[in-house]
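Why show two proteins at once? Because comparison is the fastest way to build intuition. When a single record is shown, students tend to memorize it. When two are placed side by side, the eye starts asking what differs. So, the first record is below.
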Amino acid sequence: MAKSELEHEMKDGVVFWGYEDSGELIGVMGIQDVGEVTLIRHAYIRTSVQRRGIGGKLLSHLRKLAKNPLLIGTWANATWAIEFYEKHGFELLPAQHKDHLIPKYWKISQRQAETSVVLASLEWLRANPYCG
């Protein structure tokens, strides 16, 4: 992520958390409150240390900080990311719900919205049972 994009996201309310090992930043994940939901944003783990629980630790920490039910958006073709979130209790929402939720909660391009999916926490699904 370019510095200007990082600054823009922070001005828009994304709070980033990092995971360090031996003084080296090896993972980041952001959290953003938008209305009645909390979004998980920009999750990145250094490739060389993936599958070591770092993403799970960051996600667990952010879940404890979340004030609202959680939603996560990611690329539809990022099957590894979708599997990661499903493993951690999130459910992939049907396309018609994604098409409603993305413009409501995310500020992304139409192209990005078309190629994305949305996953929801169990808390969000309980509050919106028609969407599961």
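Second record. Ask yourself what differs from the first in the token line.
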Amino acid sequence: MRAPSLQPELDTGFFGHPRGLSTLFFTEMWERFSYYGMRALLILFMTAPLAAGGLGFDTATAGAIYGLYTSMVYMMTLPGGWIADRMIGQRRAVLYGGILIASGHFSMAFPSVATFYLGLFLIVIGTGMLKGNVSVIVGRLYAKDDVRRDAGFSIFYMGINTGAFIAPLVCGYLGQRVNWHLGFAAAGIGMVFGVIQYVLGSKHLGEAGLYPAPAASPEAAARLRRNALIAGIGGAAALAVLGIGAYTGVIPVTARQIADGAGVLLLAIVVIFFGWLLTSGNWTAEERKRIYVIGVFFLAAALFWSVFEQAGSTLNLFADRNTHNVVLGYNYPSSWFQSMNALFLIIFAPIFAWLWLRLARAHQEPSTPAKFSFGLVLVGAGFAILIWAARMAEQGVQVSPMWLMATYLLHTWGELSLSPVGLSAMTKLAPARIAGLMMGVWFLATSVGNFIGGRISSFYESFALPTLFGAVGMFAIAAGLVLFAFVTPIKRLMGEVN
């Protein structure tokens, strides 16, 4: 028997918001703690010599694996959302996802190449189950006309940034100064904390996300479960055969070849999806125009994330190998730079929100495509200023940490110009009947960007650093300027949406 539904508009137990928000705040905080804690160590661990406890990979291999992992994390939110919607509900999806994530981190705590790859696989599946669905539950804590909804999501995103800020400080220190695998274990312990408090606090969530969407009939539900089970078993068996074969040498495939294959699959998904969108005859003239705009924003977002998400790869390597990581006589771990973006977000997010609101009241707020172009120029500028630092590094100089701090500051400003703006634009531009699918497109852009960013980091040792940083920076700046030149026609396609 179902519990009576909680009236969200009457629940003000968490700073004027539903008490369930506190449960989801800490769930997401610990999930991001585990993700960013492990990400801060990932490429450093892969490229560290065997004698130092690492895997001894070259940067080309490590970059390919890193890009594949970070892109698949976001790609799996699409099937993760489908499974929750159709089969188990968001509540169970978040719980199962958290358990899988913790298991993945603990798997990486064992010094073995096999457990390393197993850990990455479990984290990808688990994050796909948790990441998107926990946000869905947040939205369902509020009635549709509840004016507290936007503020509630702002509080929720503070949990993301809190976890992202703390994680590199804890896991990075343990991994780089004590033992790599202890750092991975610490990320797993953080996720365990998140799962425990999620279970204990679930009583405050009412029925939000508890049940999947009802099937058309009992027969349809049974058929769905049967097909999903067959697909799951088949997929798991195929991956197991491939993994065991690659590990034992029976199947001559390398990690880079798998990453290349995944890149082809990712490209095919993008082409097929947008091909379907553009050739479908079900859209009105106004909807079709907006779909064109969504395609432009998708491309711009993918380019942005391909530069921005090199924080954990290219910039992480630069911090470790070429930066003088000393402050007031204390030599700190290079992975601590990974906390800078979250710190700057906490500082500047309220300022940007105030700025856009003030400009809107004065009828001077930049349009959405203009903000996208600002984001691209800023993220490119972050790499462009590193050209001078890279030239000094080529001469054997350990450069000042202020160079990377300036880069992360510009990248944060770029993120605040593009990321929340793009998320809002997707909800306004998408035709109502595919609104949920369009949110998946936003994650798809992030996935594509992460994959490209990882492949760019593969060139860290084969290209001169000033050339690599300059090419990345100038490309993003040029893309931003091209987009800015087309702001007016894009605005016309958007119609009444700003």
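One difference worth noting in the second protein: The longest strand covers residues 326-327.
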